């Protein structure tokens, strides 16, 4: 049996769930970042746009 094919399905139920989980982790990581870091990122983006 192919363990790589079975393990994600066993853990997450469906491949789609794995993608949703990854997106959720990204959102949580973003929100856990301090307001200071967010402002710093916004300043960099503004500087690049100018």
Brief description of this entry?
The protein is mainly α.
Task: Write up this protein.
With 50 residues, the chain is mainly α. It has one domain. It contains 3 helices and no strands. The longest helix is centred in the middle third of the chain and has 18 residues, at 15-32. It is elongated and about 45 Å long. The N and C termini lie far apart (55 Å). The model has no long low-confidence stretch (mean pLDDT 76). Keywords: Membrane, Transmembrane, Transmembrane helix. The chain crosses the membrane at residues 20-45.
Secondary structure blueprint with pairings:
Layout lengths: L2 H10 L2 H18 L2 H15 L1
Query: Regions with pLDDT < 50 over 5+ consecutive residues?
Result: none
What is the succession of H and E elements?
HHH
How many distinct folded domains?
Answer: 1
What gap, in angstroms, lies between the N and C termini?
Answer: 55 Å
**Helix/strand class:** mainly alpha
Keywords: Membrane, Transmembrane, Transmembrane helix
Transmembrane segments: 20-45
Main features:
single chain, 50 residues, mainly alpha, elongated, membrane, transmembrane helix, transmembrane
